[in-house]
Amino acid sequence: MIRNGLFLCSIGFLIVLYSLNPSSLNYDLLSLTTGIFFIGLGGYLFFKGKKVAEEEATKDEVKR
C-alpha cells in the first residue's frame, strides 16, 4: 500500500504540474481537481499502509 500511495501522489503532482496552460497562464480546473484528488488519495493510502506496517512490526515483536 505504501508504494501504491507514493505512485498515486507522484501521478497527482504531475497532473497538477501540467494543468497550467503556458500560453494563457490559466489552470484547467478539471485537471487540477483530478491531480489534487490523486494526491489526497495517495497520501491516505501511504499513511494507511505505514500504519499497517508498524502494527505488523510490533505484533511480531517479542514482549519481555
From TrEMBL:
The chain crosses the membrane at residues 29-47. It holds the Pfam family DUF3188. Keywords: Membrane, Transmembrane, Transmembrane helix. This is DUF3188 domain-containing protein. It comes from Enterococcus faecalis ATCC 6055. The lineage of its organism: Bacteria, Bacillati, Bacillota, Bacilli, Lactobacillales.
